[in-house]
Design goal:
The protein contains 12 helices and 8 strands. The chain binds NADPH dihydro-nicotinamide-adenine-dinucleotide phosphate and (2S)-3,4-dihydro-2H-pyrrole-2-carboxylic acid (A1CAB).
C-alpha cells in the first residue's frame, strides 16, 4: 500500500476509527499524524497505534501529503481559515464531515483545493465499515485511487456520482450504526425487565444482529423479506413480534427517521 504522509485534523471518534483501520491493515504508524487541541485523545492514539501526535494543525498539515479533516462541521470554516496560508496545491484533502458541501471548502481554505468528500462510519475501526465517496470531475484518478485505498482499509467503499447522494449515505451508513445500537439497547432493556442478566441479554441480541447481517450479506440472491420469512413460522412466536412491529408502523418510523437525517444534512449545508 502507498505510504503517503497522512494527517488527521481532529482526533475524535471518527478519526480514531479511520486510524485504527489504517494501522490494523498495515499502514506505517510513523506516516500518520493526528492533531487535536486537547491531549488525552492524542495520548491514547499514540499509545494504541504508535502514530505521531501534535496540537499544531499547521505543522501537521504542512508536512502531510493527505489531510483528513476530522472536526465537527461547524469547525471546518475556522480550520480552513487557519490552514489557508499553506500551499495546498499538491495535497489531497479528504473531509469526513456531514452536511458541508465541497464548494464551501474552497471558500474556507481561500484557494481551489483538491477535495474528496467521504462519509465513513465507526465500524471502520474494526474493518467492517462502509465509506461513501464523492469527488468532482476536477479530482485526478491518482487522488481518487489514493483516497479509495486509504478508506478501504476500514471496510467497503462506494463512490456516488452526485454530491447530494452523500446525504443518502449518511442516512444509510454514516448514522445508521446508531439506529442498530438503539434497537439493541431496547431489546436488552426488555430482556432485563423480564429478568435476564444484562450481559446475557446483550450477548444474545448482538450475536443475533451479527448473524442476521452476515446472512443478508452472504445470501444476496435472497430478498430481505425472504430471510425474514424464513424465521417466521406461521402462527408462531416471531409472527407475533413482527405483527407488533408492523402494527406500530415501524417502516413509517424508519422512513421518517431517515428522511429527518437527510433533512438535517441538507439544513447543515445551508448553515456551514
Ligand atoms: N462519529 C461518526 O460516526 C461519524 C462522524 N462523521 C463526521 O466526522 C466529524 C467528526 O465527528 P466525530 O469524530 O464524531 O466528533 P468528535 O467530537 O469525536 O471529534 C472531533 C475532534 O475535533 C477536535 N477539534 C476541535 N477543534 C479542533 C481544531 N480547531 N483543530 C483540530 N481538532 C479540533 C476535537 O477536540 P476536543 O475534543 O479536544 O475539542 C475532537 O477531538 C464530523 O464532521 C462528523 O460529521 C462522519 C461519519 C460518521
Ligand atoms: O451525527 C452526525 O452528524 C455524524 C455524521 C454521521 C454520523 N455521525
Amino acid at each position: 500500500m502507498s505510504q503517503q504522509k497522512v494527517c488527521f485534523i481532529g482526533a475524535g471518534n471518527m478519526s480514531r476509527s479511520i486510524i485504527s483501520g489504517l494501522v490494523n491493515s498495515g499502514y506505517t504508524p510513523q506516516c500518520i499524524t493526528a492533531s487535536n487541541p486537547s491531549q488525552p485523545k492524542l495520548d491514547a492514539l499514540h499509545h494504541d497505534f504508535g502514530i505521531n501526535i501534535t496540537n499544531d494543525n499547521m505543522t501537521a498539515a504542512a508536512n502531510a501529503d493527505v489531510i483528513v479533516l476530522g472536526v465537527k462541521p461547524h469547525l471546518m470554516e475556522p480550520v480552513g481559515k487557519q490552514l489557508s496560508s499553506l500551499d495546498l496545491s499538491e495535497k489531497l484533502i479528504i473531509t469526513i464531515a456531514a452536511g458541508v458541501t465541497a464548494q464551501r471548502y474552497n471558500d474556507f481554505f481561500k484557494q481551489e483545493i483538491k477535495l474528496i468528500r467521504t462519509m465513513p462510519n465507526t465500524p471502520t475501526q474494526i474493518g467492517v465499515g462502509l465509506t461513501g465517496l464523492y469527488a468532482s470531475d476536477e479530482i485526478s484518478q491518482e487522488h481518487k485511487a489514493l483516497c479509495e485505498t486509504l478508506m478501504a482499509t476500514g471496510g467497503e467503499v462506494i463512490w456516488v456520482n452526485k454530491e447530494d447522494d452523500l446525504n443518502q449515505v449518511i442516512a444509510l451508513a454514516g448514522s445508521s450504526p446508531a439506529y442498530f445500537f438503539l434497537f439493541l439497547e431496547a431489546m436488552v432493556q426488555s430482556a432485563v425487565k423480564g429478568g435476564m442478566s444484562e450481559s446475557n441479554a446483550r450477548e444474545m441480541a448482538q450475536q443475533a444482529a451479527l448473524g442476521a447481517a452476515l446472512m443478508a450479506k452472504k445470501n444476496p440472491e435472497l430478498s430481505l423479506a425472504q430471510l425474514r420469512s424464513n424465521v417466521t413460522s406461521k402462527g408462531g412466536t416471531t409472527a407475533q413480534a413482527i405483527a407488533t412491529f408492523e402494527d406500530g408502523n415501524l417502516r413509517q418510523l424508519v422512513d421518517n427517521a431517515m428522511s429527518n437525517c437527510i433533512a438535517r444534512a441538507e439544513e447543515m449545508a445551508t448553515q456551514y
